[in-house]
């Protein structure tokens, strides 16, 4: 049996990773410090880019980033992804550098699927900033909807125990064995049961978006974690 604090800890980690992993990606791309925005030209440098993003004015309308913030985001994205898009293998390679002590490939796969809104096997700059805009600048409901979509692996509108077990295993593989070395191999199963005891309000075996949002809003730790990075950029 795992300790109660460990159960609650990994449940909250699942929410925090939605934001934290995106911040790690931004740090990797050199985007956390917005002060460098003044040194960025006003126009995208597109001569060597295969995928041409929407204009900055258009992206400014569609996201909650300013034009200068978008310039900084684009410069970092283009430096690491010269073609203008990132595929899943490259995405996994990036994430493997964030969690060298674990196996982040499965969690990176789930996160890539959440960013790849067009389901074309690649994440463009637009996909990237649309997701970050929700995660970093969206309302609590926006952020929780995004997290729910990440966990709803088959996108049928509800989270099953099987889906949550896959998510928990991916989190455990990525960081749990280092962070919680005393855990049993069946620990992810216990986390799933605890998750459903808290979230599945009508006990029908699945968690709907309404149940997810309502339960998360009642959890002080989750709410605090959702607000940690409000002023990152």
TrEMBL record:
Q: Which GO terms describe its cellular component?
A: voltage-gated potassium channel complex
Record-level GO BP terms: regulation of potassium ion transmembrane transport
> Its Gene Ontology molecular function terms?
calcium ion binding; potassium channel activity; potassium channel regulator activity
Which compartment or compartments is the protein found in? Cell membrane
Annotated EF-hand domain ranges read 103-138, 139-174, 187-222
Q: Which InterPro entries match?
A: EF-hand-dom_pair, EF_Hand_1_Ca_BS, EF_hand_dom, Recoverin
Taxonomic superkingdom: Eukaryota
What keywords does the record list, in alphabetical order? Calcium, Cell membrane, Ion channel, Ion transport, Membrane, Metal-binding, Potassium, Potassium channel, Potassium transport, Repeat, Transport, Voltage-gated channel
Q: Which PANTHER family does the record match to this protein?
A: CALCIUM BINDING PROTEINS, KV CHANNEL-INTERACTING PROTEIN 2
Regarding protein family, the annotation reads:
Belongs to the recoverin family.
Question: What is this protein called in UniProt?
Answer: Potassium voltage-gated channel interacting protein 2
What is the species of this protein? Oryzias sinensis (Chinese medaka)
């Amino acid at each position: 049996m795992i300790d109660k604090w460990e159960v609650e800890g990994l449940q909250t980690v699942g929410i925090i990773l939605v934001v934290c992993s995106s911040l790690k990606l931004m740090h990797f791309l050199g985007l956390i410090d917005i002060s460098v925005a003044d040194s960025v030209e006003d126009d995208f440098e597109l001569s060597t880019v295969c995928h041409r993003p929407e204009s900055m004015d258009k992206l400014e309308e569609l996201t909650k980033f300013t034009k200068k913030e978008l310039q900084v985001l684009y410069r970092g994205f283009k430096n690491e992804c010269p073609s203008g898009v990132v595929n899943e293998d490259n995405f996994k390679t990036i994430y493997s550098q964030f969690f060298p002590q674990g196996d982040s490939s499965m969690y990176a796969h789930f996160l890539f699927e959440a960013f790849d809104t067009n389901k074309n096997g690649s994440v463009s700059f637009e996909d990237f900033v649309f997701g970050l805009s929700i995660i970093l600048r969206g309302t609590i409901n926006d952020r929780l909807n995004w997290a729910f979509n990440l966990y709803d692996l088959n996108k049928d509108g509800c989270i099953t125990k099987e889906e949550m077990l896959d998510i928990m295993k991916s989190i455990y593989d990525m960081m749990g064995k280092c962070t919680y070395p005393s855990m049993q191999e069946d620990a992810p199963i216990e986390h799933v049961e605890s998750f459903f005891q808290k979230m599945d309000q009508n006990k029908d075996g699945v968690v709907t978006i309404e149940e997810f949002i309502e339960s998360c809003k009642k959890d002080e730790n989750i709410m605090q974690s959702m607000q940690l990075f409000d002023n990152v950029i």
